[in-house]
Specification:
The protein is about 40% helix and about 10% strand. By secondary structure, the protein is of the alpha/beta class. The radius of gyration is 19 Å and the shape is globular.
Length: about 325
């Protein structure tokens, strides 16, 4: 796809943000293996292009809702890596004051509601926010991120149908990584292109290459513009792949090694880097410098999180509303 409004500076920024997501998750994985971090973690290595491509079209006050695999999405929307890392360490400086952990990242100041671990929950919460925008007359847009597994939840129908009927300014972003936990999507649905379901609700649906950040960006740009113009929602399906298992305890033996190898050839970070060099938008030296900078940034985030004080037991019941 054409990248009409993507100059070299914006492409480098998108490349850098994908690097931040990748490095953050790789370091988190090692920290969990060492037993340094509490709780559990669901990673999305390989899916960075979806979050960055979509969020690059959103303003700071456009709110998004993510799912139980939120690291890349949170960082792409602007959550500070230090506060995100502190959240995983259950520290008071965390973006949710250390009470949410890996599956509940978010920061209202950058337009991200703390992510929801209930499968499909984003599909009804994001339309609710979009309804508020519509009623108050703002030009804000909301976005719901969800996986292919969530497309078979009742919330998928309820959220999209309501948003379609009301012409709400919301984007439904499906990260179709082909597996719902360990189950191949083609074993639970005969319609494997989830975007095709959009016609049942009378809204546009588009399937894009989720490993190509520019393709995602262009598709999201059209969807966001349509929403801001009051024309209603769009169902955007991004075909992508997670290079890791469903969670940190999942070795993903259910996936053929050949399949994983083929998808890794289309690593979204490498694809964009190669394209930028080929089009003379950046040099290999510049990209290498960005990698070093990001590694240092994430190491600083880890040190910050480790040195911050933990949440006091006396604060366990604060911020509880029900």
């Amino acid at each position: 796809m054409a990248a009409s409004d993507l100059n070299s500076a914006r492409l480098k920024d998108m490349y850098r943000r994908m690097l931040v997501g990748r490095e953050f998750e790789e370091q988190v994985y090692f920290l969990f293996l060492k037993g340094t971090l509490p709780g559990t973690v669901h990673q999305s290595l390989g899916q960075e292009a979806v979050a960055v491509g979509v969020c690059s079209n959103l303003n700071r006050d456009d709110y998004i809702v993510a799912h139980h695999r939120p690291h890349n999405i949170a960082l792409a929307k602007g959550v500070d890596p230090r506060s995100a890392m502190a959240e995983l360490f259950a520290k008071k400086a965390g973006c949710c004051r250390g009470k949410g952990g890996s599956m509940h990242l978010g920061d209202f100041d950058v337009g991200m509601v703390p992510s929801l671990a209930i499968v499909g929950a984003s599909l009804t919460v994001a339309p609710g926010m979009a309804l508020a925008y519509q009623l108050t007359g703002t030009k804000q847009v909301s976005a719901a991120f969800f996986g292919d597994g969530a497309s078979n939840e009742g919330a998928f129908h309820e959220g999209i149908n309501f948003a379609a009927v009301r012409k709400l300014p919301v984007i439904f972003v499906c990260e179709n990584n082909l597996y719902g936990a360990s189950t191949p999507y083609d074993q639970v649905s005969l319609v494997t292109d989830i975007a095709k379901r959009a016609c049942a609700y009378g809204i546009p649906g588009e399937t894009v290459d989720g490993m190509d950040v520019i393709a995602v960006y262009e598709a999201a740009r059209k969807a966001v513009a349509r929403a801001r113009q009051g024309k209603g929602p769009t169902l955007l399906e991004c075909k992508t792949y997670r290079f890791c298992g469903h969670s940190r305890s999942d070795p993903a033996h259910y996936r053929p090694k050949e399949e994983l190898a083929e998808w890794k050839k289309r690593d979204p970070i490498k694809l964009l880097g190669d394209r930028m060099v080929a089009e003379k938008r950046a040099t290999t030296k510049e990209l290498s410098a960005l990698e070093v900078e990001v590694k240092e940034q994430i190491q600083a985030a880890i040190e910050f999180a480790q040195n911050e004080p933990p949440l006091e037991l006396s604060e366990a019941l604060t911020d509880v509303f029900a």
